């Protein structure tokens, strides 16, 4: 299956611009870390994202829950109110949920590393004074 992460980045960027939404607000509304949103918006890390991550972002952007998944797969996105497509493989669905959680944990760890590095740099700068 071909995945078009550049199309996902474009869709997210156009929508946040259209809505005038900041990345921080999108993170709060979707419960997806800013690090993951940043990776998706700038298409810097092409790794599989869970369906839940894409669904949370889709809903936070006012779209059908499966909008970004459809964009990723090159399909026409459903409109709000369309029924949800339910996966038929419970093992794949569970694995997807585990991958989503790992992505979320990775994003939070990335944010913590950035914050820690910033604190260390400030501390070093204060010591040099």
Automatic annotation (TrEMBL):
Top-rank taxon: Bacteria
GO molecular function terms noted in the UniProt entry: DNA binding
Keywords: Coiled coil
Coiled-coil region: 95-122
Entry protein name: XRE family transcriptional regulator
């Amino acid at each position: 299956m071909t995945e078009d992460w550049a199309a996902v980045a474009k869709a997210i960027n156009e929508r946040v611009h259209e809505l005038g939404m900041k990345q921080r607000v999108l993170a709060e509304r979707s419960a997806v870390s800013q690090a993951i949103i940043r990776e998706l918006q700038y298409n810097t890390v092409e790794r599989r994202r869970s369906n839940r991550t894409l669904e949370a972002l889709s809903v936070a952007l006012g779209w059908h829950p499966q909008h970004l998944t459809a964009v990723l797969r090159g399909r026409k996105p459903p409109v709000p109110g369309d029924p949800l497509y339910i996966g038929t493989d419970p093992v794949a669905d569970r694995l997807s949920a585990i991958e989503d959680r790992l992505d979320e944990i990775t994003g939070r760890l990335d944010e913590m590393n950035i914050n820690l590095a910033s604190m260390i740099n400030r501390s070093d700068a204060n010591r040099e004074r």
